[in-house]
Amino acid sequence: MRGRRAPLWWQLLRVGAAAGRAASAGRARFIALACATLAVGLVISALTLIFAAYEGRDLRDAARSPIHASGEAGKTDAALLYRPTFDVVDNLQFQVVYLLPLRDDAPLPPGVSAWPQPGQAVLSPALLAAGRDEGITTRYGALAGTIGEQGLASPGERFAYVRPPAALGDTGRMWPVTGFGSPSPSGIGENLFVKPLYLLIGIAVFMGAIPAAALSVSAARAGSDARDQRTALLGALGGGRRARALINTGEAALPVAVGVVAGVAASLWILSGDTRLPWVGYTLAAADARRWVWAILAAPLLAAALVLLGVVLTHPPQDRRQGVRPRLIRSRLPRWWPYLCPFMVFIAVRGLGLAPNPPTRLLIYVIGVGGTILTLPSLIGLAAVAAGHGLAAVGRRTGRSGALVSGRWAAAWPGATVRLTAGVVIAFVLVGQTQLWVTRNTGPAVQAQQTVKRVGTSAVLVELRDDKPVPPAFLAELPPGVQALRLAVDHAKGTAELNGPCEALQRLALPCTPEPAPVELRSADVRVKELYSWDTPGQGLFARQTETPKGSVIVMVGRPGQHISVPAVKEAANRHLGMGVPVETIAGSWLNAANLDDRQGLWVLLFGAFAVIVIAVSIVVSNLAEFVRFSRQITALSVLSGNRTIYLSTAFFTLFLPLSAASLIGLATHYWLATPMTAGSYSDGATHSWPVLTLVLATTLAMALLVWLWGAYGAVRLTHRWRPTAD
C-alpha cells in the first residue's frame, strides 16, 4: 500500500526545521530567537500591565473619592467632614485624610471595616511597614487597624485615615461630605504622585520595544548568508513567497516556541499574586492583572507571531531583474532610511524649542532619541561602504592583502557591518540615557539636597496657619534641649524677623536685644543663612528678644551638634497644634519633590536595565554570527596568499576596527543627544556619569579585541579542515 504523502506546507516546514539544525551559528540563533520572543512578550505584557495598573488605580480612586456636599441644603445632609493633608515617611511624601463622622450611620471609606475612635488612625500596610522606625504607629494617635487592598490605589500605597481627637476643635477647614464614590474623582493618594500614563508608555516603548525589536532583527539575521543563498535557490526553482515563508518559519518555529513557553510561565507567575517590581518598589495588584488576563496570556503568542513575521520579512526574495541565477543577495539598506538620522538628531537636540510645554518637549525628545537609535545603524552602513572602498584602494596601492580583502568585504556587505555595530551604538545611547534620567532633577531640588546635607535636622520648622499662641503642652513635649523661635515675615517690606528667648537666639549667634537688630549673614550660623535663603522674601533679616514671640512659623533649634527628632515633633504637633500641620527641615518641601523625582526616575532604571540586557544579548548574537560567517568564508585565503597571517589583519579590519569605531560613535552620539538635558536651554539637572561611560567604553573595546582574536583563531582552525568545493 502506498502511504499518504504529507502536504507540501508540512514538508516545507520540515525542510526549514532541518535547515535550522545544520545552519551556521545555529545554536546562537536558537538561543537568540528564544530570547527575542521572550523579550517581545515581556514588552507587550509590560504595556498591558501599565494600562491595567492605571485602570485599577482609577477605579479604586473613584470608589474612595469623597462626594462633596454643595450648597446650604447639601451641608445639612453631610454625613462626615473630610480633609486631606500630606506627610513624609522615609523621605517620601504621602497623603493623610482626616475624617470626622457627623452621625452614627456615616458611610465608611472603602477598605475600612469600622470607624476608628477619636484620636485613632487606620494606616495602609505599606505605610505601617515603612514608618515603624519613625513612630508612625503613634504619630496620629493610637493604631486602630489597616486599610484593606480594595481601599488602596495599589498594594504598596502609603495612605492613612485619621479621626481627630474630640478635643481638637479645628474643623473649620474640613469639607462636608455625603459619602464616597464620586463619578468624577479629582485624584487622591497615589494618583497625586504618579506621572501621566503616556510618559510611562513612552519609556516602555523607548527602552523596551526598541531594544526587543533590535534583538529580534539581530536573531533573525544571524547566519543569514546561507539562508540568503537558499532564498535565491528557491526563487530560481520557482518557489514563491509562500514557500519561502514556510521554510523560514519552520527553521525558527522551535526556538520561538521555547520563548513562548518561557513567556507563558512569566505571565502565569504575574497572575498568581501581587508582584513587587525590583528597584522601583511598586507592587502590581493581582486583581488589576487578572482583569486583563486575556491580553497577558495572549502576549507570548502575539510575540511569537511578530518574531516569525520579522524572520520572514528580513529575508526578502532575490531581485529577478539581475537574472535567475542563484546567488548570495547583498545586504541592501533602504535608500531613504539613513537620511532620517540627521533629521532625528536635530529633533532631539533642537526640536525642544518648538514645544509649548514640558510634556510635549519630553515627547519630542523621546521621538528624536528613539528615531536616532533606529536610523543610525543604516547611516553606519553607508559609511561602511565608503570606508570599504577607501580601505580596498589603500590595500591595493600598498600591497596589503588584509586591507584589500576587508575593504571589499565591507563595501560588498554593509549589512554585516550594521549587524556587527548596531548593538554597540544602541547600548551606548541606552546606558547613557538611563544614567541621565536617573540623575535628572530640577535646580532648586538639587540645592535643597545640598542644604539638607549642610543643616540636617539641627533646625526644624513647624508652619502654623496663622500667628497664634503655641500651646505650652506642645513645647513641653519637644525633645530635651530644644528651644523654639518664631519667624515673622513682612511681605510688604520683604523682610523677616526671628524672635524669641535669648538662649535660642544665642544658639544661632544672633543679637539678643529687645529691639529688632539686623542680622549680618556673612558671620551668621549656617542654619540662619539657609533659613534666610529658603523661607524669607530676601530683603533683610532681623532678630529680636521677646518672651511673647510672634510669627506663623516655629523655628526649633537644638544645642550645638544636636539633631532634632522630626518624628517626635510631628507627633507632638498632631496632638496639640491641629490637623496636618507641616513639620519639615529647612528646604524640606523641595527635598520631598527631589526624592519623589528620584523614586520616579527608578522606572527609567528598571526599563533601562531590561534594555541593556536585551542589547547585550543582541551584541553577543551579532558577534557570534559574524564570527562564524567570517571564519567560514575566508578559509581559502591561505591557499591564495601562501600564509595564514592574513587572517589576523583581515579580522582586524573586518571585526576589531568596526567595533572600536562603533564604540566611539556611540559615545559621541550619546554626548550629543544628552545636551538638552545637561547643558541646553531645558537642562534639568541631569549630569554625565563619566565612570559609567568609561566602563562601557572599556568593555566594548575589550569585546572588540576579543572578537578580533577569536575570529582570526577560528579562521585558522577552519583552514585545517577546508577542502575545495563547488561553493
Describe this structure in words.
The protein is built from 24 helices and 16 strands. The chain is α+β, with helices and mostly antiparallel strands and 727 residues long. It has a 7-stranded mixed β-sheet. The two termini are 41 Å apart. Mean pLDDT is 82; it is low at 320-331.
Shape: elongated
Largest sheet report: 7 strands, mixed
Largest sheet, order of strands side by side? 1-7-2-3-6-4-5
Give the strand content: 5-15%
Structural class: alpha+beta
User: What is the number of E strands?
Assistant: 16
Average pLDDT rating: 82
Report the end-to-end length measured between terminal Cα atoms.
41 Å
pLDDT < 50 stretches: 320-331
What is the multimeric organization of the chains shown?
A: single chain
Radius of gyration: 34 Å
Task: Give the number of helices.
Answer: 24
Estimate the helix proportion, in percent.
Answer: 55-70%
A few lines on this structure:
57% of the residues lie in helices and 11% in strands. The chain contains 24 helices and 16 strands. It is elongated and about 105 Å long.
Question: Top keywords for this entry?
Answer:
single chain; 24 helices; 7-stranded mixed β-sheet; alpha+beta; 727 residues
Strand and helix map with partners:
Elements: H1 8-21, H2 26-64, E1 66-68, H3 71-76, E2 80-89, E3 92-101, E4 120-123, H4 125-130, H5 136-139, E5 142-146, E6 159-163, E7 175-180, H6 197-221, H7 224-236, H8 241-271, E8 275-276, E9 283-284, H9 286-291, H10 293-313, H11 340-350, H12 358-398, H13 401-412, H14 414-439, H15 443-455, E10 459-463, H16 472-476, E11 483-490, E12 495-500, H17 502-507, E13 517-518, H18 526-535, E14 541-545, E15 553-557, H19 566-576, E16 583-585, H20 588-633, H21 637-641, H22 646-673, H23 675-678, H24 690-721
Parallel strand pairs: 3-6, 4-5, 12-14
Antiparallel strand pairs: 1-7, 2-3, 2-7, 4-6, 8-9, 10-15, 10-16, 11-12, 11-15, 13-14
